[in-house]
């Protein structure tokens, strides 16, 4: 049985910015995962988002297929995705719905107002709230990296960030004994940070290390720890672009969702930089003894490459 991960708890409302930043640094170096409390997103709004998400996934398949994923927005059906390219499984046992930047709203797809009248305003309101919590957190992450608080704004990363809200539904059915079917197979997220909230049903596991060395992803044997839901908190994890910026100082930790036989809903918000932003090793994160590990890359190109590997488009 996997143990429960004892993740740090970061208070986004703390006025002591320096100690919060230090605490974030430690959390990102040691775990790449932490809980975020007092983030300003009301419980009542979260409950409404879950309710609307449930309504969408309960629609007949044909209605959902009308909104099939295009331009990385819309519906992805069960087994459409295998997050672990090294596995030969038939795909993950989950369905999802992506909502992209509201500034580019013509690319987004929405269920019709006749079907789900409150859906779009609820999702837009949540998108804005979680984005503002995320931006505040990024300013503390900048401080944690000994940068100016507005560093990521100044380099344009937070100017119309290419961020996606993903509604997830795990139906909970278990595959045959001989099949290895995950809710979400082992992966790391692609962007800067992910802010996740679940409905409380367990399943999420993170591969937590105890050394600060950049680990080799997908290397066996692995030890996984359960990441449980905490009432009122976001589960935050560092994504691969932040790992590249920090030259592996901050970890983009592998995680997965185990099948438990229970139906499960979650909301993942991937805060990814503006597509034109160049992601390159921060001066404070490389030295002679810690040489740069990745070449600079345009955020949009990196994201496209990763999505291509997951979806083929
Ligand atoms: O549903 C969850 O708990 C995690 C989802 C996730 O890791 C993802 O969509 O990237
Ligand atoms: Fe993830």
UniProtKB/TrEMBL annotation:
Keywords: Iron, Metal-binding, Oxidoreductase. Coiled coil: none annotated. The lineage of its organism: Eukaryota, Viridiplantae, Streptophyta, Embryophyta, Tracheophyta. Gene3D superfamilies: B-lactam Antibiotic, Isopenicillin N Synthase, Chain (2.60.120.330). PANTHER family: 2-OXOGLUTARATE (2OG) AND FE(II)-DEPENDENT OXYGENASE SUPERFAMILY PROTEIN (PTHR10209:SF590), OXIDOREDUCTASE, 2OG-FE II OXYGENASE FAMILY PROTEIN (PTHR10209). It comes from Hevea brasiliensis (Para rubber tree). Belongs to the iron/ascorbate-dependent oxidoreductase family. This is Fe2OG dioxygenase domain-containing protein. InterPro entries: DIOX_N, IPNS-like_FE2OG_OXY, IPNS-like_sf, Oxoglu/Fe-dep_dioxygenase_dom. Residues 160-273 form the Fe2OG dioxygenase domain.
């Amino acid at each position: 049985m996997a143990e429960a991960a004892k993740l740090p708890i970061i208070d986004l409302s703390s006025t002591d910015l320096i100690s919060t930043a230090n605490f974030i640094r430690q959390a990102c170096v040691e775990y790449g995962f932490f809980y975020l409390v007092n983030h300003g997103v009301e419980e009542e709004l979260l409950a409404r988002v879950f309710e609307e998400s449930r309504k969408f996934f309960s629609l007949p398949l044909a209605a959902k297929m009308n909104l099939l994923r295009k331009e990385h927005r819309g519906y992805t059906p069960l087994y459409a995705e295998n997050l672990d390219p090294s596995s030969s499984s038939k795909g993950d046992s989950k369905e999802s719905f992506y909502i992209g930047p509201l500034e580019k709203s013509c690319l987004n797809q929405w269920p019709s107002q006749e079907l789900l009248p409150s859906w779009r305003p609820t999702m837009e309101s949540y998108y804005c709230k979680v984005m503002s919590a995320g931006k505040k957190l990024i300013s503390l992450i900048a401080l944690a990296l000994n940068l100016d608080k507005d560093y990521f704004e100044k380099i344009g990363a937070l100017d119309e960030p290419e961020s996606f809200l993903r509604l997830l539904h795990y139906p909970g059915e278990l595959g045959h004994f001989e099949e290895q079917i995950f809710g979400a197979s082992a992966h790391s997220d692609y962007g800067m940070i992910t802010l996740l909230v679940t409905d409380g049903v367990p399943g999420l596991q993170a591969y937590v290390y105890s050394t600060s060395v950049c680990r080799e992803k997908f290397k066996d044997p692995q030890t996984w720890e359960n990441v449980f839901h905490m009432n009122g908190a976001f589960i935050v994890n560092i994504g691969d672009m932040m790992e590249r910026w920090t030259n592996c100082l901050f970890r983009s930790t592998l995680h997965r969702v185990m099948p438990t036989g229970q139906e499960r809903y979650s909301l993942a918000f991937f805060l990814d930089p503006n597509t034109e932003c160049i992601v390159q090793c921060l001066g404070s994160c490389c030295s002679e003894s810690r040489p740069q590990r990745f070449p600079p890359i345009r955020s949009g190109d990196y994201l496209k490459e990763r999505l291509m590997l997951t979806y083929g488009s």
